[in-house]
Amino acid sequence: MSSLLDMFPQLPFSEWISNFIDWITANFNVLFDSLNNVGTSSMEWMTRMLMLIPPLAFIIIVMLVAYFVSNRKMGLSIFAGIGLLYIHNQNLWGNMMNTLTLIIVASLISIIVGIPLGILMAKSSLAEKIIQPILDFMQTMPAFVYLIPAVSFFGIGMVPGVFASVIFALPPIVRFTNLGIRQVPEELVEAADSFGSTGWQKLYKVELPNAKSTIMAGTNQTVLLALSMVVTASMIGAPGLGTNVLTALQRGQAGAGFVSGFALVVLAIVIDRILQSSNKSRVN
Predict the structure, then answer these.
(1) How far apart are CA 174 and CA 129, in angstroms?
(2) Is the whole model's pTM more than 0.70, yes or no?
């Protein structure tokens, strides 16, 4: 059987993909350079703005946000305060701000692109059949593979890190938006139709408000997936807490790696719980 299979020539998939990426890079080089320059300047500006906030003031703001979104419960607020104090105590404050910039930008781009795609999937079965396998591909492909086109298009730095993070974090918000709109009770949709609502009125006044809880759950997943790409993105020069973990791994510094990794865990828990509490308070 092996000899029979050997009769088929090997398809040059690797060469095709390399040629395709080379063609895109050569023909859209000016566009990628412009995006890289604008993106880098914007994110550096955002990081500088975050760094202008005194650490103690930042911690108090986060604690107040956690307190009010959790219906005035102290548990989350205290955890957020202790966690951020730990990060500052370990001299990781600047790296955390770079990480926050990457997460904010990658999440915003994913949400801006993902929600319209989810709406399109909910409104068109044909679009769902086309987009669904693409989302499956994006979610099953190892995250490291996304670094290859990111580096080819943008070089190294924060922008390729955001590019790879967006591809990795985009699917949940698309899927949850599609699911949320499809789960809107038919009676509500029929009532909107009976009152003569246009398609846009039905979407903005009936479907999106009723799907808000599900869309927020998708937003939460997207933000956490963007956060999970921090260490991977550091391999192509994205600054932040991931760089500390990568450097500690390369130098065999277990303590430094654990400290930075634990800071990432603290940040992930704080962001996740605040988003979850915000979603619950909206539902209640």
Answers:
(1) 13
(2) yes
